[in-house]
Amino acid sequence: MAGNTFGQLFRISTFGESHGEAIGVIIDGCPAQLDIDLEFIQTELDRRKPGQSKITTQRKESDTVKILSGVFEGKTTGTPIAMLIPNEDQRSKDYSHNTDVFRPSHADYTYYAKYGIRDHRGGGRSSARETAARVAAGAVAKLLLKSQGIDVISHVSSVGKINAPAPDFSNADRFIEEREKNIVRCVNQYVAEEMITRIDEVRKQGDTIGGKVTCYINNCPAGLGEPVFDKLHADLGKAMLSINAVHGFEYGSGFAGSEMLGSEHNDSPIPHPSPVGKGALIQTLTNNAGGILGGISNGMPIEFTVAFKPVATIMHNQQTINAKGEAAEISGKGRHDPCVVPRAVPIVEAMAALVIADHLLRHRASKL
Ligand SMILES: Cc1cc2nc3c(=O)[nH]c(=O)nc-3n(C[C@H](O)[C@H](O)[C@H](O)COP(=O)(O)O)c2cc1C
Ligand SMILES: C=C(O[C@@H]1CC(C(=O)O)=C[C@@H](OP(=O)(O)O)[C@H]1O)C(=O)O
């Protein structure tokens, strides 16, 4: 069904529910002869998987990925790549309270309204468990981008009102090395100590908190994107807004740009000392454009921020309704994230990599 697919030339379809047998993805359109590093794909999944820290859901999933097709002797064959991730720790009985009562601010009611039936075990298809499949596909897209020298990296830029300055992303390898060191913090991402303390505080109160992830795409050549509907920032926005719990997307100067004068906002082009990629013959003194003009990349780093709402399932008694429309009460049970942003980092990167991989292929098809 169209609702389960994403992309034009580098296309993915995901399948599976949180408490079903498995989740997975099929990638169609990945060029042949791309080196597939299974260890890298697994590492990306490990960055997202649940159950690794007190500040994430306690559901323990190994998220071990199996490639079923499309790869032969370590290289893509140009045929559909299917990847499967079994579910191992569902414990569905813990969710029986949820059978016919709708959790406030989760997707329980809207799924019921749309289909008249819903898999109430955990979040079913609406659970962010599905994003593991996106991360697996995104890892393949990242391998494609790496082969062209393009890096996609992001970090937790805020939790509640705590903001973090951007780490030094100018050297992607050094950043990734730093992040590896951070794995001892159990969250596998670049999360400030103060943020971890705040998330834990909120968790102990049975509550949840929102936050933001900022993403940088470095060495993206100029010329990727489309002039009208599928503008690069429009496709990035759609990709980000398709991630569970996302409530905002801004690129470049974003909402702050609306408070600026043109004389402050314009990015002055200067000659590029060493052109990166095809067509990247300029750079700009500032980057309020976020690396995109007229829907097409201009060769500067692409920068955007994604805002996530606080997790809906809280461990407090809340007013709601049941499937008959009668007043009811619900208190969260089962295992839930107190804040999604630490685990959202690899999801944001995966979706960004999928968009750039798709537009890279589209760009190659756009001129002789
Ligand atoms: C990484 C990640 C983990 C999440 N974990 C939970 C969770 O444990 N409990 C929950 O209620 N929502 C969680 N969410 C959010 C829900 O999946 C999301 O709110 C729900 O599908 C409704 O969709 P919407 O918020 O996009 O409207 C998570 C989201 C992400 C990205
Ligand atoms: C299992 C994962 O996270 C889940 C995301 C999620 C949600 O509502 O989004 C709710 C919880 O699971 P369940 O679907 O069992 O209620 C989280 O544990 C995962 O990310 O792999």
Task: Give the key terms.
five-stranded antiparallel β-sheet; 18 strands; Chorismate synthase, AroC fold; globular; 8 helices; 368 residues; binds flavin mononucleotide; 26% helix; binds the ligand C=C(O[C@@H]1CC(C(=O)O)=C[C@@H](OP(=O)(O)O)[C@H]1O)C(=O)O; alpha+beta
Topology:
Layout: E1 5-6, E2 11-16, E3 22-28, H1 38-48, E4 66-69, E5 71-72, E6 75-76, E7 81-86, H2 108-115, H3 131-146, E8 151-159, E9 162-163, H4 172-181, H5 193-204, E10 211-218, H6 232-241, E11 246-251, H7 262-265, E12 269-271, E13 282-284, E14 292-293, E15 296-297, E16 302-308, E17 317-321, E18 327-331, H8 341-364
Helix pairs in contact: 1-3, 1-8, 3-8, 6-8
Family: Belongs to the chorismate synthase family.
GO biological process, one term: aromatic amino acid family biosynthetic process
Enzyme class: lyase
Describe the structure in brief.
Its cofactor is FMNH2. The chain is an alpha+beta fold and 368 residues long. It has helices spanning 38-48, 108-115, 131-146, 172-181, 193-204, 232-241, 262-265, 341-364; strands spanning 5-6, 11-16, 22-28, 66-69, 71-72, 75-76, 81-86, 151-159, 162-163, 211-218, 246-251, 269-271, 282-284, 292-293, 296-297, 302-308, 317-321, 327-331.
